[in-house]
Amino acid sequence: MNKFYTLFLSLIFAATLFSQQIDNGSMEDWDNLGSSTEEPTNWNSFMTATGGLAFFGSQQVEQSSDVPAASSGMYSVRVFSNSVLGIVANGNLTLGRINMGSSTPSSTDNYNFTNTTDSDFSQILTTMPDSIVFWVQFNAGNNADSARIHAIIHDEYNFRDPIDAASAPYTVATAGLNYGTTNGWERKSVPFDYVGPSTTAKFILITFTTNKVPGGGSAGDEVFIDDVELIYNSAVGLEIESNSRWIGYNSASGLHFSNEFNADETVIVYDLTGKEIVTGSAESIKGLILNPGMFIISHKTGSSKIISD
Question: How far apart are CA 117 and CA 137, in angstroms?
Answer without folding.
Answer: 33
